[in-house]
Sequence to fold (490 residues):
Amino acid sequence: MDWYVADLGLAALGRREITLAEHEMPGLMVMRQRYAEAQPLRGARIAGSLHMTVQTAVLIETLVALGAEVRWASCNIFSTQDHAAAAVVVGPDGTADDPGGVPVFAWKGETLAEYWWCTEQIFRFDQPPTMIVDDGGDATLFLHQGIAAQRAGAAPALDDSASDEQRALAQRVARAAGLVAEGASPVAAGLPEAGAPLDFLALLASLQGVSEETTTGVRRLRAMATAGELLLPAIDVNGSVTKSKFDNTYGCRHSLIDGLNRATDTLMGGKVAVVCGYGDVGKGCCEALRGQGARVVVTEIDPICALQAAMDGYEVRTLDEVIGQADFVITATGCCGVLTAEQMARLKHQAVVGNIGHFDDEIDMAGLARWPGVVKEPLKPQVDAWRYGDGHVILVLSEGRLLNLGNATGHPSFVMSTSFTNQVLAQLELFTRAGDYPVGVHVLPKRMDEEVARFHLPALNVSLTRLTPEQAAYLGVPMEGPYKPDDYRY
Ligand code: NAD
Ligand code: ADE
Fold:
């Protein structure tokens, strides 16, 4: 088995945490019980690109328990929990000397070149993969860029404005496709290069679809579909209510302040915390900060979300109006250029800056690095002080990448169980009912969404009221659900 993780010696710790997590992930455990015998994923080969955490370990081992062969990488350079990665490689019954688990290619603190090398490895099964699990769309992007390069017989073209990220991706795609990348030097020095090029067209022929985890990844998929560029069926897992209204909100309510505390331990009570974006993630962040006694200010572009924030009791301002008073600025938009270098220069001494949106383009890190006189002073991994010429500093978390996974351990198991049960259902749909999902972006049926919620009720000792036949007829819904029309907003 090939794999690349930080230290297999961490596997025992990882396994102990995985065992605790399993108890907190009832949805995944129901999937295992329901399908262990039938093995509906037998023959499936799943290429996963999603934060390599303890919770993801339980997802991976659930897919394996249902019969799938799996290869995995993280979807972020800082989010891997090395003990979880090690435990997945070793497997429940293996040893560090004789690993028997799943090939994982992930460690905390990858370079961009290493990140894309890891992404390539998840596609390198003996037979091409049948599905992708993606979080943010990078595996899907790698596939589409590879197909384009192979069809063109040329490496992806880059102009001078290309970012380091785009450069690292293009170089990796070129290498993987057996093409010569422009200006390519050893792109992931020290890591083994596979001999044979990846046949991206064979990958496409074999792939039955992708299930996408997050808001930003779904936005990318929809943009590709609109442009006529999407080449495979996709299930929008974020579109399940039991994903976006739980993980994005309650998950971030937990993991935002976990990240802030582990990074800086700065008191939040009484301080001014600005949250950019009052969508599903922003709502959870604001609630958590308010719970700590912070004076929370929201920025929004959407009048509906701005009005929601105001009705929930938050001040709503533009960032420029409040930047000089902010003790914390948290971006949660999925947009780009939200916090500019010019605004960061106006922050108070020791203000904390962090992003919880999927990508690092919400905060202008490149602009900060170019700011006259500014110097980066690393405090500890994933926490940097940036000192300005006048001596004042700001504290930037995880280099502008999502702080709840870079500075802490992401969402807790219970909420990830709701997300990942949707992931398992989506993979089952793509594998066993491929004909129902043509190329395009789909959501799971509402009856499945309600079922995912149902799996999690007993653990919280919830007593659900049952409709009588008369009440069901009165409401015009089946007694067993679904209880809401598809466009109900929750
Ligand atoms: P959303 O669309 O529900 O919310 C984003 C909000 O930001 C919207 O209300 C939008 O109007 C607002 N917005 C957009 N541009 C803005 C700007 N320039 N200034 C102020 N507000 C702006 O999306 P979401 O589900 O809340 O996700 C937000 C981001 O977080 C996405 O990138 C998503 O992928 C990511 N995410 C991260 C985690 C995590 O664990 N870190 C979990 C779930 C989602
Ligand atoms: N996204 C947010 N938290 C996560 C976690 N704990 N595991 C995987 N993905 C996540």
Summary: The mean pLDDT is 97. The longest strand covers residues 375-380. The chain has two domains: 8-207, 250-406.
